[in-house]
Amino acid sequence: MVFEYILKKNGLDPSTDLTIDQSISFGLTAAAFTSSDADYTIEFEPFATTLELEGNGSVVASLGTESGYVPYTAYSARKSYIKQHPEVIQSFTNAIQRGLDYVNSHSSEEIAKTISPQFKETPLDKLTQIVERYKAQDTWKEDTVFEESSFELLERILEEAGQLKETVPYKELVTTEFSTKAVK
């Protein structure tokens, strides 16, 4: 949906100007790209960097950079849960904020070493390169505050993709109370 939004934003019609094959399983798109006649693929890391390092492709753009801050990761809880367990929500938000503080204050090498146990199949030098790309693209925000402009961008993308029939007011779905406290 984000890719199609970016195409439209740049004057291309995804239904007439190109062919998008969405039949390929998410984890197999890089392999399919190298063995087919496709001109482009959309990849998350570490697959994008792997394609480059193997000489099978080049990263030409970042969907995140081209789209603006789309909240790819957002956490949801029932209002009743938030009301009954605010300390759990605050602790969780504080932990995410500490993670953002860490990635925004440490080098790519330090971050790569820290996260390497979670990516055992990815060599440290490649992981460092991936983190550096994320830093250069300004992937990590400074805080966990879900801004209204990002919410509206997400709604616009969902609407254009035919996945959202009507918008919902930001204040009805989003609370920044815990994020604001976590920043302090």
TrEMBL record:
Signal found in the keyword field: yes
Pfam families in alphabetical order: NMT1_2
Keyword hit for Transferase: no
Entry keywords, A to Z: Signal
Principal localisation: periplasm
Subcellular location: Periplasm
Family: Belongs to the bacterial solute-binding protein SsuA/TauA family.
Name recorded for this polypeptide: NitT/TauT family transport system substrate-binding protein
Species of the source: Enterocloster alcoholdehydrogenati
Origin organism lineage: Bacteria, Bacillati, Bacillota, Clostridia, Lachnospirales
